[in-house]
Amino acid sequence: MKRFLVLLLAALASLSVLGQNRGKFAFFADTHIAEGAKSIEELEACIEDVNSNPEIEFSILAGDITEFGSDREIRLAKSIIDKLEKPYYVVAGNHDAKWSESGCNTFEKVFGYGHFEFEAFGLKFVGTNSGPNMRMAPALVPRESIVLLDSLVKATPSDKPIVFVNHFPQDTSVLNYFQVLDILKESNIQLVMGGHWHNNVVLDYEGIPGILLRSSQAKGRKGPGYSIVTVDNGRISVSEKVVGMEPFEPWYELQMTEPLPFNRRHQVYGQRPDYSANGKYPNVKEVWTLQESGDIGAGAVYSEDNVVYTTTQGYVKCVSLASGELKWSVKLNGKVYSTPAVYKKYVVVGCADNIIYCLDIKSGKELWKHHCDKSVLASPNIYDGVVYIGASDGRFRALNLKTGHLVWSFSDVKGFVESKAYVDEVQVVFGDWANTLYSLDRASGKLMWTWKVKGSRMYSPAAVWPVKSGNRLFVVTPERKIYSIEASSGSTMWEHRGGRESVGISALGDRVFVKTMKDTVFCFSTAPAMKAQVLWATDTKIGYDIAPTPTAYYQGVAFVPTDKGSIVALNAETGEIMWRYKLSFALVNSIVPIENVKERKILVTTMDGKVSLLSY
Question: Closest Cα partner for 362 from 342, 379, 382, 380?
């Protein structure tokens, strides 16, 4: 009898936790603030509407706050959101992250945080940002957010009801949805809330209730609006609120339970990463693999026994090529999306803290640094004792490798630069996020010509690493075209459908390899011509793929990166598939063949924080 009373009291106490608090909050998603856009007045109207309702105690804004993630847009959005008269909590979405000229630093600086956690109405609200950050790839919750979420869940009492907020739906449209769900299943998760689809949608995440909520924009609706979420006696209800109208009847209701009765073993989507295909090519093996606690948004490089790579947590690390053993690690003051460049003892890398660093490859000791006016997200190229690198401050620089002193600066770059420039004896070629490809005189930095893409700035030749053969440059743009451009004049020689940003070139420069957005890899001749000459086209069966990572080439093999962690090796002469290997579920950032070794090897990094040496 005594045991029964104890259990009864515990059950009543559990119910009281859910029912002792009640209240309302506003939920915004996909505000897409851009200068001069209608979305500004729509959000302002929503905020005025929220301020007129004394029952609303706080607001949550779930990502895609801006359209292009620029510093000006972020500050503009903050000035508007600050008009809310009660507390608000905000996380970033993919639009805030992919095209961020600051490398995602400005969002955190302006709003003061990159995630939130607070308690209200007897619930714990946890919100994390979403990616991919700076790289074009499918949705991916950043590695550091996964680590953070895991730590927050473990620090939360097991009986505390949790509401998780992320911009993306946590289903198979997010590459690492399973990591998020597995962590949440270890907690008293009650509801997952998000946006991204711009509509009200009810979802089931392997037994975890989920909802996506409307955009604040009026597109396709009766007017601009937001959602009102009511918590009352352990029940959550969601109503749509159009500015100037009474709230609609609730379109979603949830009676919270404690704990949530999902089946951890059987209620799964069934589409988690499958590595079984690796067994078909036993010649491909992992020599070593490292797992970082943050994303890797760039490539790795090597020199002798030294492998150097960077992380979005600001680290530059050097490990042994033979073993993967750490040699040194340096923490910079900002996120790093720059693939390092190495020459002899010099390691050069750009950082989102506005600085270009040069470190000693043996110790990581700083040799020099050069300050810029904004973040440096681009990757450096070292040629004949000079470092060539773009930044987000409208300038492209040439720096003395030994001293860091400025050799020349081109100061008429219209958009921010994130790629690695092509450099030879004659010219420096790079793109920006303002639709433009630039060719500068290598010796003086004077403009030779510009070449432009028409239409949206999202079609810019900004993520592609240009390649050159003879008097022909080759670039691939997000409008799904490859272009052959006369290097001396900037005139378009030919264009061909297919591709996005992934292009590579053979050692002899006689052919280029282009990965399209759907299965096919093309091989084009680089011979002077007014029309594209397709040497072969291979259906790789990789599916829809938007990885911007360059294709690699070594000793007759073309290595094709994918946005879901696989590498496909093709015979460069025939296009025949030689092997494929799945290292991860996330974007392959770089493939670097190791030259002049008996056993063929490639160095690979992936967005979810993996660095691996593969033999094949």
Answer: 342
